[in-house]
């Protein structure tokens, strides 16, 4: 397949011409001022691009052509729930009554905004089976951190803060789990996974004691498997006074079918940017709501948004046991507007179809690929399947090579090498919004690639060969670190690389 | 079914391939007693036209900046956003992509992130910047935690003239790691007394322009930090950087800020975008993502996420931060904004802000109202009223004015009559005159 016929993109700093401007800005009619007198010494240079409006549009439009999103094609990136992001969500989030409001304006001047937040909270409470929701965390990892803070405050309130030093985390967990535990001042202990892909109960029993603050566990696990002993695990932790956090990144498997709050969890983070369709934006904004049970409620971050018995939404700020604020305002408000729009599109009658069809699609892909890429654990998977490519390793083909070759076939690769415990992992999450035809085309491509892996592995090693660049030298990127453009007039002072 | 394209024939064929009879059979691994059998107690499903009407109805209940003249800032500003910004960030190739883990398929986004890093570093006068943090407040908290990690010291000193919400977030983050917070009080709205800075101090954090709009003495803050061997961290509004000498010229170690003024909607406070810039020597400890330029095997230039061994997916509990998803789309908005305005446009916006602010400072001195301080300010100032600022603010809303932020709730009774008034470039002389007239009426 030929290289993509797009000219090598030029940096925006090498475009334009001094004196040009690409925006029709407001004209100020207030009197002129002597800036030096008003502000003191002024800066002398500012090296920003100088382009016309059309030039700017072309720059970013052309760059978009060498970028791939869900709207471009299938994006089965495991653990990321790349489902369709409905356009109506963008329309509602674009309403001036949402976009042009300020979190510090008087509460009574934004009743509609608080109503949005309250409605999202109420629906999430019911869907996940928790007593309380806060929308203040700004992403999944931020929700993890907030949950751990609640747990820390809870142990502190019982005089056990100093004693409970450890957080237990399965070896299959996402990296943010241990990183969040560390950011909350905890030491991490890793819990092994058994041969069936479940948490190793025997090992866990040996690790649970009154020095444990919490277990952070993902359900369904990052293996795409439902943890059948989850209730027993929660009971075990509770028996020594520890708490159980659910990493809810995989909530898409459960919506309307089973509720983490009923599994015995004390708290959980959601990724509304996965399960509830808010666009991921190329790495954010996320939207990291958390759910929790009553006993953690006193520690909720302030302000707490609550519907009073008269139906009015109120703000509580005087909460002496609160952990404080975890972000500046009310969370990712315009993302909550999108999430609410999505939640109401499904509503009472249709919500459970999300998990049903997500699980159907994942099992279909798993079944179609079983002869070329077996599942790491041969059980019904939930919303994603984790396959292993070990059989191609002896011929020199790695999971990453298969992924890179998929790019040549026009699909976004699945997640590779996660969870860490599966050798040559290929984690596929199709989501419920993909048609059977798309899944078939993808599976056909995977099967063809696996054949190539055996017959002409060089095709995989050389992949991708259809994009504007081939595989990039990541070691060189670190060694010759170049993370910004520098204006020529400054280059002697600060070398570009080094 | 909304967004789910399966026909009955599809489902049948798929179940047959899988080898089960019903979709429900696929959930056999979920223990019976954990299956949710009743109907969810949530609102009815809505069709698209009902959805829009429902949300539109809620949005109409809010007083927004398109309906009244807006003088409320306090860290988030009603700035003009060119239509080109929205046009770019709503493109599906950007909007609906994930973090660029596959660089060959994400060169477009990666290049824009590199350009973002370059522009933010330039604005702040710093050597490097990362790909974004959640918001200004968490960016500041992460900077403090980094200072602790680098110096091994446990005391964080912050000025009370830093945004009160940022200080609350800082307090939460420091509590979680058992670090100490000491606040310098600022009764005159400027940071003057650095006597608490000592050899236990990990960093000194000040905001410039500060929460009150006033310009701080960065040289003095820098010297206080350096003398104690502490790191020097500055929080700065990016728009002001078009005119002010950037913190980098005062040898700041880390500069953080809220990127919202660069083309992002106020959006009731989210999504925002945290800015984080630092000295090059800190780059290997920087939290969050960073994009670097490199080459492919044939020497073609390209971009990748780099210094990845700092990050949680590789380093787990030893990572420099737990951040994964950041605010890429808002960073893209800022990149388009800065590209469209460029050097001259950003200066024009900053100058318009200064002119409107200076004009309002005089025009609003009516009926005993007067500016509380004489300091140099950038885009906002404290107006001292003859009576309770919260009451005055409320009385001005039906008169078409969002007058500012009453400071009593944040700084105590001595500030009960103080109102923080912001003027961006989007205000007009007529709006300011109207504000003055209405203020006269209610006072
Ligand atoms: C299993 C799991 N947990 C946590 C996270 C962290 O979420 P976020 O990226 O929103 O911080 C992710 C996604 O990145 C994930 O896949």
Structure overview:
The complex is a heterodimer of chains A (498) and B (443). Chain A contains 16 helices and twelve strands. Chain A is an alpha/beta fold and 498 residues long. Chain A has two domains: 88-350, Type I PLP-dependent aspartate aminotransferase-like (Major domain) (Aspartate Aminotransferase, domain 2); 352-479, Aspartate Aminotransferase, domain 1, CATH 3.90.1150. Chain B contains 13 helices and 15 strands. Chain B has two domains: 69-81 and 342-442, Aspartate Aminotransferase, domain 1; 83-338, Aspartate Aminotransferase, domain 2. Chain B is α/β, with parallel strands linked by helices. At the A-B interface, α1, α2, α3, α4 and α5 of A face α1, α2, α3, α4 and α5 of B. Bound molecules: pyridoxal-5'-phosphate (PLP). Pyridoxal-5'-phosphate binds at residues 79, 139-141, 174, 176, 218, 222, 247, 249, 271, 286, 288 of chain A.
Q: Nutshell version of this structure?
A:
Chain A has 498 residues and is of the alpha/beta class. Helix content of chain A is 34%, strand content 10%. In chain B, the strands form 4 sheets. In chain B, strands 2-8-7-6-5-3-4 form a 7-stranded mixed beta sheet, with helices on both faces.
Pick out its properties.
heterodimer, A: 498 residues, Aspartate Aminotransferase, domain 1, 7-stranded mixed sheet, 3-stranded antiparallel sheet, 16 helices, 12 strands, 34% helix, B: 443 residues, alpha/beta, Aspartate Aminotransferase, domain 2, 2 domains, 14% strand, globular, binds pyridoxal-5'-phosphate
Helix content of chain B: 25-40%
The first-level CATH class of the largest domain in chain A is given as Alpha Beta
Largest interface: A-B, 207 and 209 residues
Strand content of chain A: 5-15%
- First and last CA, distance of chain A: 36 Å
Helix content of chain A: 25-40%
Gross CATH architecture of the largest domain in chain A: 3-Layer(aba) Sandwich
What value does the Rg of chain B take, in angstroms? 25 Å
**Tally of alpha and pi helices of chain B:** 13
Principal-axis shape of chain B? globular
Number of helices of chain A: 16
Q: What name does CATH use for the topology of the largest domain in chain A?
A: Aspartate Aminotransferase, domain 2
Enter the CATH topology name of the largest domain in chain B: Aspartate Aminotransferase, domain 2
Show unreliable segments of chain B: none
């Amino acid at each position: 397949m030929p290289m993509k016929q797009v000219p090598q993109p030029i940096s925006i700093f090498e475009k334009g011409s001094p004196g040009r401007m690409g925006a029709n800005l407001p004209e100020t009619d207030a009197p002129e001022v002597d800036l030096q007198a008003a502000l003191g010494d002024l800066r002398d240079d500012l090296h920003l691009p100088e382009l016309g409006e059309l030039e700017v549009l072309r720059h970013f439009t052309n760059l978009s052509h060498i970028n791939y999103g869900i709207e471009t094609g299938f994006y089965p990136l495991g653990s990321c729930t790349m489902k369709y992001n409905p356009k109506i969500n963008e329309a509602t989030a674009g309403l001036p009554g949402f976009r042009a409001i300020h979190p510090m304006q008087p509460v009574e001047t934004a009743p509609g905004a608080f109503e949005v937040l309250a409605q999202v909270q109420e629906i999430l409470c019911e869907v996940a089976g928790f007593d309380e929701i806060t929308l203040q965390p700004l992403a999944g990892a931020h929700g993890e951190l907030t949950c751990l803070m609640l747990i820390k405050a809870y142990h502190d309130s019982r005089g056990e803060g100093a004693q409970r030093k450890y957080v237990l985390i399965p070896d299959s967990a996402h990296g943010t789990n241990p990183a969040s535990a560390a950011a909350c001042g905890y030491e991490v202990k890793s819990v092994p996974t058994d041969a069936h892909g479940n948490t190793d109960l025997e090992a866990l029993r040996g690790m649970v004691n009154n020095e444990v603050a919490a277990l952070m566990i993902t359900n369904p696990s990052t293996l795409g498997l439902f943890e059948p002993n989850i209730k027993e695990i929660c009971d075990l932790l509770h028996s020594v006074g520890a708490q159980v956090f659910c990493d809810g990144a995989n909530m898409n498997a459960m919506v309307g079918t089973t509720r983490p709050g009923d599994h015995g969890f004390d708290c959980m983070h959601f990724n509304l940017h996965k399960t509830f369709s808010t666009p991921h934006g190329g790495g954010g904004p996320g939207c990291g709501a958390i759910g929790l049970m009553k006993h953690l409620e006193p520690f909720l971050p302030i302000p707490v948004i609550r519907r009073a018995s008269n139906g009015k939404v109120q703000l509580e700020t005087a909460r002496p046991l609160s952990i404080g604020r975890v972000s500046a305002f009310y969370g990712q408000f315009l993302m909550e507007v999108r999430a609410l729009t999505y939640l109401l599109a499904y509503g009472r009658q249709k919500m459970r179809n999300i998990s049903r069809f997500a699980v159907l699609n994942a099992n279909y892909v798993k079944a179609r690929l079983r002869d070329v890429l077996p599942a790491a654990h041969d059980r019904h998977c939930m919303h994603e399947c984790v396959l292993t490519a070990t059989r191609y390793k002896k011929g020199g083909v790695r999971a990453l090579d298969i992924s890179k070759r998929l790019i040549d076939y026009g699909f976004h690769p699945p997640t590779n090498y996660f969870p860490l415990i599966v050798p040559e992992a290929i984690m596929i999450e199709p989501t419920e919004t993909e048609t059977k035809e798309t899944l078939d085309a993808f599976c056909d491509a995977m099967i063809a690639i696996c054949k190539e892996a055996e017959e002409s592995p060089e095709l995989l090693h050389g992949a991708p060969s259809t994009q504007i660049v081939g595989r990039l030298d990541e070691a060189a990127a670190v060694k010759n670190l170049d993370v910004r453009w520098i204006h020529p007039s400054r280059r002697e002072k600060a070398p570009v690389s080094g | 079914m909304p967004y789910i394209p399966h026909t009955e024939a599809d489902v049948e064929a798929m179940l047959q391939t899988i080898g089960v009879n019903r979709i429900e059979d696929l959930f056999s691994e979920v223990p019976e007693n954990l299956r949710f059998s009743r109907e969810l107690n949530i609102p009815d499903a809505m069709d698209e036209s009902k959805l829009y009407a429902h949300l539109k109805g809620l949005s109409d209940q809010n007083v927004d900046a398109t309906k009244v003249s807006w003088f409320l800032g306090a860290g988030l500003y009603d700035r003009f956003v060119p239509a080109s910004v929205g046009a770019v960030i709503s493109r599906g190739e950007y909007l609906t992509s994930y973090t660029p883990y596959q660089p060959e398929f994400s060169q477009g986004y990666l290049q824009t992130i590199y350009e973002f890093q370059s522009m933010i570093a330039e604005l702040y006068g710093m050597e490097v910047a990362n790909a974004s943090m959640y918001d200004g407040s968490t960016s500041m908290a992460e900077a403090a935690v980094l200072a602790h990690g680098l110096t091994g010291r446990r005391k964080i000193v912050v000025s009370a003239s830093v945004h009160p919400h940022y200080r609350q977030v800082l307090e939460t983050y420091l509590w979680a790691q058992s670090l100490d917070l000491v606040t310098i009080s600022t009764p005159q709205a400027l940071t003057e007394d650095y006597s608490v800075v000592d050899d236990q101090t990990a960093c000194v954090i000040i905001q410039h322009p500060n929460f009150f709009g006033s310009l701080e003495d960065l040289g003095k803050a820098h010297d206080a930090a350096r003398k104690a061997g502490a790191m020097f961290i500055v929080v700065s509004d990016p728009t002001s950087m078009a005119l002010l000498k950037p913190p980098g010229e005062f040898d700041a170690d880390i500069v953080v800020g809220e990127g919202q003024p660069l083309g992002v909607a106020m959006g009731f406070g989210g999504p925002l975008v945290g800015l984080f810039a630092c000295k090059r020597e800190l780059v290997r400890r920087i939290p969050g993502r960073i994009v670097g330029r490199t080459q492919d095997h044939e020497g073609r230039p390209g971009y990748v996420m780099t210094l990845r061994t700092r990050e949680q997916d590789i380093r787990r509990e030893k990572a420099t931060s737990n951040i994964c998803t950041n605010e890429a789309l808002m960073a893209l908005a800022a990149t388009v904004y800065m590209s469209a305005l460029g050097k001259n446009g950003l200066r024009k916006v900053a100058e318009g802000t200064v002119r409107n602010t200076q004009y309002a400072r005089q025009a609003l001195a009516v009926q005993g109202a007067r500016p509380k301080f004489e300091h140099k300010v950038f885009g906002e100032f404290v107006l001292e009223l003859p009576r309770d600022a919260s009451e005055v603010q409320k009385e001005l809303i039906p008169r078409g004015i969002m007058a500012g932020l009453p400071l009593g709730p944040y700084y105590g009774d001595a500030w009960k009559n103080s109102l923080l008034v912001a003027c961006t470039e989007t205000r007009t002389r007529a709006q300011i005159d109207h504000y003055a007239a209405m203020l006269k009426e209610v006072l």
